[in-house]
Amino acid sequence: xxxxxxxxxxxxxxxxxxxxxxxxxxxxxxxxxxxxxxxxxxxxxxxxxxxxxxxxxxxxxxxxxxx
Length: 67
Description:
Blueprint: E1 4-8, E2 17-21, E3 25-32, E4 37-43, E5 48-51, H1 55-63
Antiparallel strand pairs: 1-2, 3-4, 4-5
C-alpha cells in the first residue's frame, strides 16, 4: 500500500491541499519565503513541491514509510 499524506501548498491564499505519495519523495529541504517557512519535497521524477508542513514531521513520515 502506498504511503500518502495530505499537505497544504505554501503560498496559496485559497489553502490548496494535495495528496503526496511519500514513496516517490527522494528528499525534503527546508524552504523559506518572505512570509513563512515550509518544506520543499523533491520527487523521483525530478519535480518539486513546496508545502506548509514542518520539514521534521515530513521526514519522520518518510522514515516510517517502510513499516
